[in-house]
Specification:
CATH superfamily of the domain at 3-32 and 101-211: Ribosomal protein L4/L1
Number of strands: 6
Number of helices: 7
Helix content: 25-40%
CATH architecture of the domain at 3-32 and 101-211: 3-Layer(aba) Sandwich
CATH class of the domain at 3-32 and 101-211: Alpha Beta
Strand content: 15-25%
Order of helices and strands: EEHHHEHEHEHEH
Largest sheet: 6 strands, mixed
Distance between the termini: 19 Å
Radius of gyration: 27 Å
């Protein structure tokens, strides 16, 4: 049975309702897909710029430090050796890409699993579309207060990129704004409440139903 969610207005009052489709918000949760999606996201945030100098890159003479035999010391071919303080590093990190690409079907499964987790916990909300003529943190906070959402870690999802809303929420540390094109599993999982605008919700349902 599908779940009904109230559509809130800017005063926090219910002005209607929408249905959470079972094929998007009530599937069998795949913990494996969630795990893969989170690991891939965190790997893709890595810069991959860690680097050390090998013995060939150290600015030192390559002349042999002392003769091979007769000194009682270990053999040392060069002051660039990893055995010497200030010498090169053996098997140290080099710049590399940690990028991990997931199959589309796995990404889709992870996203729907995350939505199911939030839906089952009554953490999906929908609000009427709104915008401001200019950035206003005070106005944005007032709407969240009216909806009882100001003290929770919030993911606010818009249909399109909304720069004015982004600027309005910039000083609210618990608010993260994403549009449908940038929505990911990681953002969904770390939020206490997922708040869709009405337009974003309708567009999301339509798009993902077409994907199957």
């Amino acid at each position: 049975m599908s779940t009904q969610v109230d559509i809130l207005n800017s005063e926090g009052q219910a002005s209607g309702s929408v249905e959470l489709p079972e094929d998007l918000f009530a599937i069998e949760v795949s913990e494996y897909a969630l795990y893969r999606a989170v690991v891939a996201y965190e790997a893709n945030q890595r810069q991959g710029t860690a680097s050390v100098k090998t013995r060939s890159e150290i600015a030192r003479t390559s002349k042999k430090h002392h003769r091979q035999k007769g000194t009682g010391m270990a053999r040392r071919g060069s002051m660039r050796s990893p055995l010497v303080r200030g010498g090169g590093v053996a098997f140290g990190p080099q710049p590399r890409s940690y990028y991990e690409k997931l199959p589309k079907s796995l990404k889709r499964l992870a996203l729907r699993s995350a939505l199911t987790v939030k839906g089952s916990g009554d953490q999906i909300k929908v609000i009427e579309d709104f915008d401001f003529a200019e950035p206003s943190t005070k106005s944005f906070r007032k709407i969240l207060d009216a909806c009882g959402l100001n003290d929770q870690k919030l993911l606010f999802i818009t249909a399109e990129n909304a720069p004015i809303l982004v600027k309005s929420s910039r000083n609210l540390p618990k608010v993260n704004i994403a549009h449908l094109g940038s929505l990911g599993t990681y953002d969904l999982l770390r939020a206490d409440i997922v708040l869709f605008t009405h337009q974003a919700f309708d567009k999301f349902v339509e798009t993902h139903r077409q994907e199957g």
